[in-house]
């Protein structure tokens, strides 16, 4: 294989740049040319390909966002769009493609694989909802950002003796809420995967206040309900002054953590190695300390469950 290409797609995630850097540097190390595709699959359809050099990935390992830009493409979801994308890749003599992104982007990767393009996916999403890998790039930074923000909210919550409901991202999953909630010692963590009882939560908040606690923090994953709606329900049941805070896109930006950069470096390098070894239709991921290859078909077989031991821990510690 003489030439490969790399793109980022879907919602951006801190650490995507470190992954691009690793793909480019590993390919050049192995004597293979690399093209960068701007604006994800949409940019591919528009022929936005450019040669990448060591210089084009300099000074980016620590930057959030993605230097290749990203997009969600409706045109690429169609049969005609995917055929056109194959045409563009062949026209540019691209022998293999690395797709960095979340669930939707990896589905796009699989579509190209089925059409005969050699493709390897790298999981990157703050949501950590991609099956087959313990972690996706961006998740560690996102939960650190949530913890940082909630530590600040806690100061004002204590001063005013208020209850706060903090709404976090995660799409349909509760990974961000659960991990960050444990990290900040939230009084309640409400996620789509676990049934909850608002009356019981309200009773617990009242008992906590009676014990002398001056504030309470509840975390709700966006896939359950809005923070504002939950705050109203809690205020109605407890009579406590309750505020909602929606953290929003702050969770997607910022300097990637060392852990995310390292993961990105390992996955980026492995993706190139696998492509050059003739593999396709796989995602590279991490399980425990090991970097693994996962068939894309397995990635889409089911939802990624929350860690049962963390759910149990949250139940035991939020008394
Ligand atoms: O998948 C990442 C994510 O940030 C989700 O947590 C969130 O639901 C969604 O993207 C928001 O998408 P957009 O930036 O298009 O509003």
From TrEMBL:
Residues 3-274 form the Phosphofructokinase domain. The active site is at 127 (proton acceptor). Its cofactor is Mg(2+). Allosterically activated by ADP and other diphosphonucleosides, and allosterically inhibited by phosphoenolpyruvate. One of its GO terms (molecular function) is fructose-6-phosphate binding. Mg(2+) binds at residue 103. It comes from the Bacteria. It is found in: Cytoplasm. It catalyses: beta-D-fructose 6-phosphate + ATP = beta-D-fructose 1,6-bisphosphate + ADP + H(+). InterPro entries: ATP_PFK, ATP_PFK_prok-type, PFKA_ATP_prok, Phosphofructokinase_CS, Phosphofructokinase_dom, PKF_sf. ATP binds at residues 11, 72-73, 102-105. Keywords: Allosteric enzyme, ATP-binding, Cytoplasm, Glycolysis, Kinase, Magnesium, Metal-binding, Nucleotide-binding, Transferase. GO terms for cellular component: 6-phosphofructokinase complex. Pathway: Carbohydrate degradation; glycolysis; D-glyceraldehyde 3-phosphate and glycerone phosphate from D-glucose: step 3/4. Substrate binds at residues 125-127, 162, 169-171, 222, 243, 249-252. It is an enzyme of class 2 (transferase). The keyword Lipid biosynthesis does not apply. Homotetramer. HAMAP family: Phosphofructokinase_I_B1. Catalyzes the phosphorylation of D-fructose 6-phosphate to fructose 1,6-bisphosphate by ATP, the first committing step of glycolysis. This is ATP-dependent 6-phosphofructokinase.
């Amino acid at each position: 294989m003489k030439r490969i290409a790399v793109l980022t797609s879907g919602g951006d995630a801190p650490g995507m740049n470190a992954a691009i850097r690793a793909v480019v540097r590993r390919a050049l190390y192995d004597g293979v040319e690399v093209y960068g595709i701007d604006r994800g699959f949409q940019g591919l359809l528009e022929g936005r390909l450019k040669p990448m050099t060591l210089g084009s990935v300099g000074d980016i390992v620590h930057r959030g966002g993605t230097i290749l830009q990203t997009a969600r493409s409706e045109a690429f979801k169609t049969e005609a769009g995917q055929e056109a994308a194959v045409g563009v890749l062949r026209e540019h003599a691209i022998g293999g493609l690395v797709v960095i992104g979340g669930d939707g982007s990896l589905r796009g990767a699989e579509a190209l694989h089925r059409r005969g393009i050699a493709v390897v996916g790298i999981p990157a999403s703050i949501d950590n909802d991609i099956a087959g890998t313990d972690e996706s790039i961006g998740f560690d930074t996102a939960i650190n950002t949530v913890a940082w923000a909630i530590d600040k909210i806690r100061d004002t919550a204590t001063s005013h003796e208020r209850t706060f409901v903090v709404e976090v991202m995660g799409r349909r999953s509760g990974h961000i809420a659960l991990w960050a909630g444990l990290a900040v010692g939230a009084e309640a963590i409400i996620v789509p995967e676990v049934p909850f009882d608002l009356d019981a939560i309200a009773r617990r908040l009242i008992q906590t206040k009676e014990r002398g606690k001056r504030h309470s923090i509840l975390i709700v994953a966006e896939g359950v309900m809005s923070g504002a709606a939950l705050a109203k329900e809690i205020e109605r049941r407890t009579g406590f002054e309750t505020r909602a805070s929606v953290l929003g896109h702050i969770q997607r930006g910022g300097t990637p953590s060392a852990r995310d950069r390292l993961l990105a470096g390992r996955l980026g390098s492995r993706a190139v190695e696998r492509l050059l070894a003739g593999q396709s239709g796989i995602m590279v991921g991490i399980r425990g300390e090991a970097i693994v290859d996962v068939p894309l078909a397995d990635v889409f077989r089911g939802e990624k469950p929350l860690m049962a031991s963390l759910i149990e821990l949250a139940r035991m510690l939020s008394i």
